[in-house]
């Protein structure tokens, strides 16, 4: 037990983390974060006031902006994280772009898995509480959408107390080469097929077939997507 008025080991690490984040030179910040146990590759930049929690691995050529909060997360080569992002319990693939203000939160039981060449738009919420996988070449357009893998609707309708007990959890998977428009909401338990397009402002409450465009509240099939070499065409829902 820490003696009152004294700083315990965790508090000392927290203070050191904050101090390192305020230093004016990137190379110095990177060097000292390595001293704290953060695995940092080559040609990495870390913005001012960014905090690194435990179990963080940063590969080569990664750029992390200012005021970012990261813990229990790995970044593969060439990923860019903009300012004011919060990420925990996540695995981010190569050449991803995480835009400003986004929140990506998994848990120790269910990490968020994001593939390569994925772009997450400004102010998105990616909830991995129930398990979230986003495959390669997916875009979530700006601004502000959400993918949820948990819900408290049932327990609140029943008047049960707030908290994790009794919360519905169901995984979400987004297939490769999918485009998700701005302000889309994906509900727990949904599987989005590959080569799909989810139009802006839609609410996705059921699975989306591959090569399908959906739109609306709730979202319905509006087009079939056809691909022929480098050409993409959209045809009627039939």
Q: What's the level 1 CATH class?
A: Mainly Beta
Distance between the termini: 68 Å
The CATH topology is: UDP N-Acetylglucosamine Acyltransferase, domain 1
Mean pLDDT: 89
What's the oligomerization state? single chain
What share of residues are in beta strands? 25-35%
Within CATH, the superfamily carries the name: Hexapeptide repeat proteins
- Give the helix level as a range of percent: 10-25%
Q: How many independent structural domains? A: 1
* Broad shape: globular
Helix run count: 3
Explained architecture:
There is one protein chain. The chain has a single domain (9-222), classed as UDP N-Acetylglucosamine Acyltransferase, domain 1, CATH 2.160.10. The strands form three sheets. Strands 1, 3, 4, 6, 8, 10, 11, 13, 14, 16, 19, 21, 22 and 24 form a 14-stranded parallel beta sheet that branches. It starts with 8 loop residues before the first helix and ends with a strand. It is built from three helices and 27 strands. Residues 1-6 have low confidence and may be disordered. The radius of gyration is 20 Å and the shape is globular. The relative contact order is 0.07. It is mostly beta strands and 238 residues long.
């Amino acid at each position: 037990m820490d003696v009152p008025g004294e700083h315990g080991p965790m508090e000392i690490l927290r203070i050191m983390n904050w101090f390192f984040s305020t230093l004016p030179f990137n190379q110095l910040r990177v060097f000292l974060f390595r001293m704290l146990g953060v695995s940092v590759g080559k040609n990495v930049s870390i913005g001012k006031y960014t905090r690194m929690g435990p179990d963080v691995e940063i590969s080569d050529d990664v750029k992390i902006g200012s005021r970012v909060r990261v813990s229990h997360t790995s970044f593969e080569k060439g990923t860019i994280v903009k300012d004011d992002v919060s990420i925990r319990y996540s695995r981010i693939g190569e050449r991803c772009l995480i835009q400003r203000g986004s929140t990506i939160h998994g848990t120790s039981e269910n990490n968020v898995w994001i593939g390569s060449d994925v772009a997450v738009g400004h102010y998105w919420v990616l909830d991995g509480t129930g398990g979230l996988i986003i495959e390669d070449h997916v875009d979530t357009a700006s601004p502000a959408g959400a993918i949820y893998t948990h819900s408290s609707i049932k327990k609140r309708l029943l008047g049960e107390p707030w908290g994790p007990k009794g919360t519905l959890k169901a995984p979400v998977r987004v297939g490769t080469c999918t485009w998700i428009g701005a302000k889309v909401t994906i509900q727990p338990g949904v599987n989005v097929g590959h080569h799909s397009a989810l139009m802006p402002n839609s609410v996705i409450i059921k699975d989306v077939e591959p090569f399908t465009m959906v739109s609306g509240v709730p979202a319905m099939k509006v087009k079939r997507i056809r691909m022929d070499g480098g050409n993409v065409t959209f045809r009627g829902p039939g």
